[in-house]
């Protein structure tokens, strides 16, 4: 995984590849051999929505590989060409800088930035111990099912614009997904309504939207990007807050090392558990957005003493 400073260098270095992608892209391969619209997505939650809404009428190419942390994704020349040739690119501007650059160079007229319909926010629930201010926009909107439902509606609209012949099918599948996400939101609301604790101590500040939606308080070690290591002083500060609230569980995630979370748990006499931010599926893992979110709900209910 690249650090932020190395990432900026990598973005600069890929500029030549982006230009090459523009020059060598096929004349028009925005549909596959069966006539389906090719859609490129930046990472798993966007892939999930696009596949659900697009169904058999689209061919979805997800750029982030299973098991890989997507924040600092590096694009290969072949992936740049996929962006250039896509009928639609569904992405989150600012989350994956190399994809932002590829879109700007090759697909600005065929790109849908989902932040346009679910504006990102910052604030106290959206920062880690190693961040100041907390006003940076938090990208992890999909952990609030109601926000993902808004995106689903607009993906249906964008696909209908690109492929009018299947517009009715996109609308129908989009409405069905919105109904499923509304049901999931109701499950979280009911499941977290009566809990002994409302504080979640996490290794990565990915759960701010979930916390905002369901009236929880996130206490995070690392900030919005999980590759920033907290200092011993920051770990100690979070440990003190965890003790203050009587936290019984320190949450870590599937795509980054659990070592810091384990160290914190030892300091406060807590156990650890996985709370999945769903930036990507684990390599070789099973399930989808709904099954992982429901597993998260069960984990939260146990950790927070919910009845």
TrEMBL record:
Signal peptide feature range: 1-27
Family classification: Belongs to the bacterial solute-binding protein 9 family.
SUPFAM superfamilies: Helical backbone' metal receptor
Superkingdom classification of source: Bacteria
Keywords: Signal, Transport
Protein name: Metal ABC transporter substrate-binding protein
InterPro entries noted in UniProt: AdhesinB, Bact_metal-bind_prot9, Lipoprotein_PsaA-like, ZnuA-like
Keyword hit for Signal: yes
């Amino acid at each position: 995984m690249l650090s932020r400073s190395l990432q900026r260098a990598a973005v600069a270095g890929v500029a030549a590849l982006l230009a090459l992608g523009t020059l060598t892209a096929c004349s028009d391969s925005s549909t596959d051999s069966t006539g389906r619209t090719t859609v490129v997505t930046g990472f798993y939650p966007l892939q999930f929505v696009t596949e659900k809404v697009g169904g058999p009428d689209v061919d979805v190419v997800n750029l982030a590989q299973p098991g890989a942390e997507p924040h600092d994704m590096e694009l290969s020349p072949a992936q740049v060409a996929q962006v250039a040739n896509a009928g639609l690119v569904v992405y989150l501007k600012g989350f994956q800088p190399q994809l932002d650059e590829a879109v700007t160079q090759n697909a600005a007229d065929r790109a849908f930035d989902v932040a346009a319909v679910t504006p990102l926010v910052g604030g106290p629930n959206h920062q880690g111990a190693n961040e100041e201010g907390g006003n940076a926009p938090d990208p992890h909107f999909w952990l609030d099912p109601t926000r993902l439902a808004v995106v689903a509606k607009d993906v249906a609209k964008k696909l209908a614009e690109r492929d009018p012949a299947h517009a009715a099918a996109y609308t129908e599948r989009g409405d069905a997904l919105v109904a499923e996400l509304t049901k999931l939101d109701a499950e979280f609301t009911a499941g977290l309504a009566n809990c002994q604790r409302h504080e979640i101590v996490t290794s990565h500040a990915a759960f701010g939207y979930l916390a905002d939606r369901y009236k929880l308080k996130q206490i995070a070690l690392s900030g919005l990007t999980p590759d920033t290591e907290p200092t011993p002083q920051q770990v100690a500060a979070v440990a003190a807050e965890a003790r203050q609230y009587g936290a019984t569980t320190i949450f870590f995630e599937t795509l980054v090392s659990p070592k810091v979370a384990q160290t914190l748990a030892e300091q406060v006499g807590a156990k650890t558990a996985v709370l999945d931010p769903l930036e990507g599926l684990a390599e070789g893992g099973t399930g989808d957005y709904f099954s992982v979110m429901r597993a998260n709900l069960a984990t939260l209910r146990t950790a927070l003493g919910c009845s």
